[in-house]
Amino acid sequence: MQAHECVVNLANKTVGKPSRRGDGTFGELVPTVVAVIEKGLHVARGEIANIQIGAEAKILAKAMIKQIDRVIGDLVRQVEEFRKAGGNPICVGLVGINCAEVYTSYEGDRPWPTDGKKYKHPIQEAAAAEQRLRDKALPSFDEFLFLRFRAANVVPYPFEWVNFEQTAKEYAALLVRVSRMYDQRFGA
Prior knowledge:
With about 190 residues, this protein is α/β, with parallel strands linked by helices. The protein has helices spanning about 65-85, 120-135, 165-185; strands at about 5-10, 25-30, 55-60, 90-100, 105, 110-115, 145-150, 160. It is built from three helices and eight strands; from the N terminus they run E-E-E-H-E-E-E-H-E-E-H.
């Protein structure tokens, strides 16, 4: 890290390997490229030759079951893309799941609030959406984290974690496991 041999790639692609870009990639710096170092950050950024860690994130806010198959497909295909770049990347999935009692989406200026009947409230679908992701997407990843939250999408736009302490612990534990996997796969 300190030698800037491995960097974060903000374009989320590897050089010379066409692929769908992920939401986060980390890998070996292309030797002819200069790493960009930003004050206050420990990890430099730049173009990468391979993907050592790839992350994909999705957020389910409303109409989760209606879109769950597409979301699962996107997640699984992104792992395939990370692996296509070569090597043995650590693949991390992050999925936000809204557990709010109500939610309003917008098409232009027109609001579409949930009603609990035709338009299910997020809380009515959250558990089923999580279970389908657990069954069909999670097995493709080395690590997978559910980020359960509540957001109604109306002024003043309140947001809260369903269980902040548990979410923080699960995220920290994921980071420890990814660090250990990294050491095993790529050496220190």
